[in-house]
Amino acid sequence: MINDFEFVQAHDIPAALQALAGEGRIIPVAGGTNVLVNMKRAPLPADLVLDLTRVEALAPITTGRDHVRFGANVTFAQLLEWSPGGPLQELVRPMCMGFAGPLIRNLATVGGNVCDASPAADVSPVLLALDAQVELESAAEGSRVLALTDFFQGVRRTARRRDELLTGISCDRPREDERVFYYKLGKRRADAISIVSVAIRLRLEAGKVEMARIALGAVAPVAMRATDAETVLLDGALSDQTIAEAASVAAREAQPIDDFRSGGAYRRQMVETLVARGLRQIAAHRQGAPSA
Amino acid sequence: MTKRTLNFTLNGQAETLEVAPRARLLDALRVDLNLTGTKEGCGTGDCGSCTVLLDGKPVNSCMVFALQAEGRDVTTIEGVGKPRALHPIQQAMIRSGGIQCGFCTPGMVLSLKGLLDQNPKPDEDEVRRAISSNLCRCTGYSKILDAVKLLADEGTTTETTEQKPWAIGARMARGDAVDKVTGKAVYGEDVRLSRMLYGALVRSTFAHAKIRSVDVTEALNLPGVKAVVTGQDTEMGYFGYEVRDLRIFALDKVRYNGEPIAAVAATTPDIAREAASLVRVDYEELPAVFDPEAALTEGAPLVHDSLEDYEIDWETERGGNLCYKVEVTDGDLERGFAEADHIVRGVYETPVAHPGSIEPHSSTACAESSGRITIWTTTQKPFVFRSYLAQALKRPISSFRIVPTAIGGGFGGKLFPVLEPYVVLLAERAGLPVQMTLTREEEMAATMGRHPSRIEIETGVRSDGSLVAHRLRMLFNTGAYGPYGPNTAALGSLMATGPYRIPNLEITGLIAYTNTPPNGSVRCPGGPQLAFALETHLDRVARAVGMDPLELRMKNAWENGDTTCTGQVLDSVSIKECMRKAADAIGWDKPRPPGVGRGIACNWWVSGTWGTQTLIESNEDGTFRLISGCVDMGTGGMSGAIMQMAAEGLGVPIDAIQLVSGDTDTLPWDHGHGGSRMTFTIGRSAYEAARDLRQQLLTEASGHLEAPPEELVIEGYRVHVRGQEERSVPLSKICYARHKKHGGPMVGVSSILDEPPPTTKPHPIGAFPAPSFCAHAVELTVDEDTGEVRVTRYAAAHDVGKAINPIGCEGQIEGGVVMGLGLALMEELREKDGRVQNPNFADYLLLTAEDVPPIESILVEQPATEGPFGVKGVGEPPIAPPTGAVANALAELLGADVGRLPLSPEEVSSLIRTVRS
């Protein structure tokens, strides 16, 4: 089979939806940093490549008081330069710094990475920690909203129907008093595929954990929330003991595989290590913070 | 699939093109517009050599569909600066020495431009981050970072030097840098011939299987296919280096996953690959063996049925899966062990590592009507390749004309034919030129890597730290074929003692065949493996006797008059000075701050040699032509140190000498670029040829000036009588008169013969001419939770004999250190059932600019007794000690016994767990 497809550039969302409603195998592309890798390795199973880069409506980041929305075409370079301040920035910026390298960051988009649904995608744990919801639109059925946890269905499998366009991702904007942690463990400092990545977001009220999000990358078929570990933390103080327990529960929740990038045992152990590290950092920050 | 119109702005000009929907921006630039300054190193966004600016932002042009560029602004290297109007970034890259092979350079320049256009005064971290997607395999990034510093200092420094810029010892910019920094240099895949076809290989999908049949019918019937060749319809001979056990196609059986079975040529690369997938091979799978130790046990599946079919140059015991065995003994080992107060044992393992040149192999062939064939190819050894082709295709050596292209990194990976035989056969069969380029995946999975090793050492030491007995057994896996196996074992056996006195020895080197992809001769073959094993082991020895590792090494280090294990008497030993300087540079004697580990490691290595001939010929205008068949794989020696030595020998300005480029029809024979030989061997030859020509010039001038030649001086472009500058004649006049009236040009000639120093013991290599010595010291920290290692400081002291061009020496050291740190920390081709799991730059990791520590390169100059200026080779050795130095620093910091590379976070984490339990 040889690469033999048509190429259409959509200029607005209706045009993109109309193209997606057509017959045949359609591959939407924005940053292209996954599609073109695939095309280098084997002919694309496509009759049409639909370029979304000119759909301006997909470009902006919109920020409200308690939510933020990333247009599907937001690039990681754009996200790196973005300065929302507060815990949101503390979570997003280190992820962007560790995301591939500067060349790919200038192309790759948030929407594209979510749709690619690699279990090791760097952006996914951060979005999961922010309770992300994906917005999907189609010509036939209008729009629907899905929790990101429901959108991911397996290794590089999502709930997106073939005629649907992912238009944006809506997330919580963490309150100023929330605490966050992000760590990507890779084999080198720049441009590495993660072995494990961890995003944590916590809200404490009067010394007790009121809300907890622990999200993990590269340790399961999909980027995942460690919900049991979150439950361990809820309504309790962030003590050494609960931290250790939550970390160990998170490690049990992970379903890492052995592959040439890393052994599963190491991945699991790193989940425990990094979740504990994140929670300890958050606890220390909490203790050091001036009382309101 | 109809072509579509693309309108965009290219380098400031409106451009309209018809492109296929599948075309990438990279294809539009390289193929449709013939702008070959943009390179393809991987095609998967992992190397950065295809970087262009898209609306001012650096991006991988392999990650953009051409049609996505509609209406946008694209800048390629061709739009940055021109040879006579270089951009300041390009000028700075040339001055700093930030260019070696040059293949990554266009992309690097564009990433820097993207940064500096936005942020004219970036700090070093910002620069490192901005180029962290651009892999450089040669420079180690240091001199690229220096280029940005030069830009920042622009106008504030004035260089005041009495020295001629080309004098011996001057920091000279290499002559080929302008071509490289502007994207004009022509590499393998940049060759374009009219009506050229594209080739692809059919490769085995089994590690070990009988071939029942090969059916090419379907492939031949695919429209666009012009030729298919297989082993069945080709006259094939065995070829190789010391062992000739390879044929270009598997015939009766395949011995590794990825072995070529057939080759096809078609009108486009896509059709060629499609056709390759249509060749039907019927296999009968055979039991396979992947582990070298298992391969040498009785009853293991045999990779080769009969080794007797293969010629071997060196005497050896062989049979079964044993390809080669070398043994060296000295003194009385049992007595040595009896005298020892401690006996320290260790086992050390290193994985397959890849040369990782950013330029993949690419070769182009055109059959001439005379029956001869011309091959344009990216090769370190154009002349030797003719011999390999002659063996492989059973034809006369001189029936091949090889035109070497610029080389986008060699490191040993371009020492041996990879694509040349196939393009020859396809071009002949098709009657049209054929080009074949490896994908990154093929490059990593099926071209030769560094031999993985398992090294067992048992060392006897007295309480005072003297080494008295040493038993070392090294086993290398050569894969399915062993063209460079014997060489690796033999070199390894010479490094088995390191630069240390050990009176009682037993060294065994074994090369085993397995059903894994073949391994070859990669920069300092055997060096990093032995440096890791031996130097890590010596730290264990030091711990056993309670000595500082540096002190133990100093106590046993060679001095002048000592002999190597083969009886070579050493007369220019500098290892103690190297150790002292490297150790001092990281503050070895100062107390370790908590959490910091320090390590030291040494090595010694060969300079050259092999035969060469250099000619220097006069032009009629008083300029000269330096004619050598040696190619430059990127180090810069040919247009740097060699030219400096020629200019010194002649006594003329370097601008008066042109470096002639040519091919195997026009240039004198040379053995090629490898073995750290360029400055030592080609330099010596160039200098001697220059002295020869100088004498002829003076004789000619003597007639013009009516003074004896010994009273004449060449200065600038004139010859004058010593002390009487007014009595002079221009070189142009001398040369013109000589050319016109007295029988053409004057030619200075020097032929260098291979004469290794004497030894007392039989050994296939015996001695290292002008051995070089080095010591590296490292400081690092570890995240003890995750096992991540951070190298914070690095010093490398190398005895180069004499630094002809210090920029070049430092470039070799910095680049070698970074490659060696890669071996220490992350480089590993992972094989599973004989199949490479990570054949790409996303999972076979080279260090990026963000991973590289500051490196202090220290040039020690202890002149060699051979050759002019006392130069010693420096190309290969810097890659060896980092493995040992890093392992020792980690062992010290963690209190662990390190025994395996690479020291990935996972491996280090497991060391930490072992210590804690």
Quick structural gist:
The complex is a heterodimer of chains A (292) and B (917). Chain A is of the alpha+beta class.
Can you characterise this structure?
The complex is a heterodimer of chains A (292) and B (917). Chain A is α+β, with helices and mostly antiparallel strands and 292 residues long. In chain A, 35% of the residues lie in helices and 25% in strands. In chain A, the strands form four sheets. A five-stranded antiparallel sheet of chain A has the order 4-5-10-6-7. Chain A has a four-stranded antiparallel sheet with strand order 11-12-13-14. In chain A, α9 runs antiparallel to α10 and α10 packs antiparallel against α11. The longest helix of chain A has 25 residues. Chain A is globular, with a radius of gyration of 19 Å. Chain A starts with 5 loop residues before the first strand and ends with a helix. In chain A, 55% of the residues are buried. The model of chain A has no long low-confidence stretch (mean pLDDT 95). In chain B, α15 runs parallel beside α22 and α19 crosses α20. Chain B starts with a strand and ends with a helix. Chain B is an alpha+beta fold and 917 residues long. The longest helix of chain B is centred in the last third of the chain and has 28 residues. In chain B, 28% of the residues lie in helices and 24% in strands. The radius of gyration of chain B is 28 Å and the shape is globular. A seven-stranded mixed sheet of chain B has the order 8-12-6-20-17-18-19, sandwiched between helices. Chain B has a five-stranded mixed sheet with strand order 2-1-5-3-4, with helices on both faces. Chain B has 23 helices and 38 strands. In chain B, a hairpin with a 2-residue loop joins β9 and β10.
